[in-house]
């Protein structure tokens, strides 16, 4: 039987949300305020049948890189260099700006050059901890340095950095190849994890089948949007656990969306209505978020 979903929930609909994002865009940070492309939440649901071009596909989350470098010349150099690999690069000048941006945007990779307000190893730890806290897939972090310091390289790698590239290895072709190698390793891990996760979940009267993208209540199919399905399956993966609103925003960020708390509340409201009586299984935890109870 074919999956029962809304026409608006096709994967191509998610791609459509990125159609207007340039492949080599830049984020400028100014007093903590970021000027960047904000996708309209309605466009996330998209329109069935849309086929993105190669240029549009390059702006998907899998091609988004967060670059952190305090030096303006270095920031410009590495932003332009990385962009030649087809990546959409968001460039910021400080560790604190990077962490603020990471809270509202999803990136496939972070590249850190020398920064003034934190050591690169500490920034690497904090970025990874932030994505873990928001229940996002692990964020690979690559450190760049002009000179090689073996002791510092060991400390950085032990602190969780995925690569430490210096000196002659900053040659453009080698650097891009090293970045792609790190991403390839993470994609392989995620593919294996997704295979393990794609098992139907049954919580009370609700059944969620991620393989067929299908939701049932007491055996009857329920039509849901892609965002609603993602929220429901995330909560079903850990029933009775409270998911905070920032955590749910992080999960939706993987679809390319940047939803605020009001948008999350609206999606939960409509999801409850579609589930009927079973919608009562989604409980509001005042001041925190939501949970799916058994």
Number of helices: 10
CATH architecture of the largest domain: 3-Layer(aba) Sandwich
Please indicate the count of domains: 2
pLDDT average, as an integer?
75
Strand content: 15-25%
Q: Kindly, what is the distance between the CA atoms of the first and last residues, rounded to a whole number of angstroms?
A: 27 Å
Helix content: 25-40%
Biggest β-sheet, characterized? Answer: 5 strands, parallel
What is the fold named in CATH at topology level of the largest domain? Rossmann fold
CATH class of the largest domain: Alpha Beta
The CATH superfamily name of the largest domain is: Response regulator
Radius of gyration using CA atoms only: 20 Å
Low-confidence stretches: 1-61
Number of DSSP strand runs:
14
In N-to-C order, the SSE pattern is: HEEHEHEHEHEHEHEEEEHEHHEE
Spatially, the strands of the biggest sheet line up as: 4-3-5-6-7
Shape: elongated
Class from secondary-structure proportions? alpha/beta
GO cellular component, one term: cytosol
GO molecular function: phosphorelay response regulator activity; transcription cis-regulatory region binding
Pfam family, one: Trans_reg_C
GO biological process, one term: regulation of DNA-templated transcription
Gist?
With 294 residues, the protein is α/β, with parallel strands linked by helices.
Structure, described:
This protein is α/β, with parallel strands linked by helices. It has 2 domains: 133 residues, 3-Layer(aba) Sandwich (Rossmann fold); 92 residues, Winged helix-like DNA-binding domain superfamily/Winged helix DNA-binding domain (Arc Repressor Mutant, subunit A, Orthogonal Bundle), CATH 1.10.10.10. The protein contains 10 helices and 14 strands. It has a 5-stranded parallel beta sheet with strand order 4-3-5-6-7, sandwiched between helices. Strand 8 and strand 9 form a beta hairpin. InterPro entries: CheY-like_superfamily, OmpR/PhoB-type_DNA-bd, Sig_transdc_resp-reg_C-effctor, Sig_transdc_resp-reg_receiver, WalR-like, WH-like_DNA-bd_sf. One of its GO terms (cellular component) is cytosol.
